[in-house]
Amino acid sequence: MSRIFIVEDDKSIREELAELLRNSGYEAEYLTDFSNSRADILAARPYLILMDINIPNLNGEQLLKEIRRESDIHVIMVTSRTSETDEVLAMSYGADDYITKPYNPTILLLRISAVLKRFAGVSQVQSYNGLQVNDAKGSLADGSREITLTKNEMIIFRFMLDRKGSIVTRDELMTALWDNDEFVNDNALTVNISRLRSKLADLGCEDAIETRKKQGYILR
User: What's an example GO cellular component term for this entry (predicted)?
Assistant: First the structure.
């Protein structure tokens, strides 16, 4: 399920948009505090951002410019501005699409689907503590070495990476593996996490996964 992050300062609009997205099968989150927008958005690790131009502190175009310095997250600008200059500027800063308000919800969903399909299958290389994380290859690399993860290890690592800094329970990890047609019992989960820890340590990330007794794990 694709996680979409909404950057919109109008409470009623963002809540309606979140409901529309959830009813259409997406995960939806949004900002409520715009004092540290860039960091909060990047920490959420969304697959796509719906961003208004007129937002507090940094405007959407400047925020997009800052995000593009660190990430290739897909971005659709959603705004009441109708100027061609605004559209050209937003696209030049790295927006993947641009739609004006008031928009038809069906058209918005089609635009979102089009962006997601456009990039489906494109190898996304992200980073974790200096390591390159390649989903397509199922590998971690530090520039000179590359270690391949098993399918289960990559599912566990990706699930924890998407929630970095937050506690992930064993039940959540078991569900993530089960949803990917993998049956893993509790002992096998422990073995997979142990092997993942060892591979991260081999690449210089010792103690990357912290165990919280009776709670779960945290990827630091």
Answer: protein-DNA complex
Q: Which domains does the chain have, with CATH numbers?
A: 3-119 (3.40.50.2300), 125-219 (1.10.10.10)
CA proximity to 151, closest of 176, 127, 129: 176
Picking from 89, 9, 98, the residue whose alpha carbon sits closest to that of residue 54 is 9
Number of H helices, E strands in the chain: 8, 11
Contact 136, 142 (CB under 8 A): no
In angstroms, rounded to a whole number, what is the distance separating the alpha carbons of residues 192 and 128? 19
- Are 198 and 207 in contact, with CB atoms under 8 Å apart? no
Give the largest Cα separation in the chain, rounded.
59
Say which residue the tokens 């390159």 belong to.
132
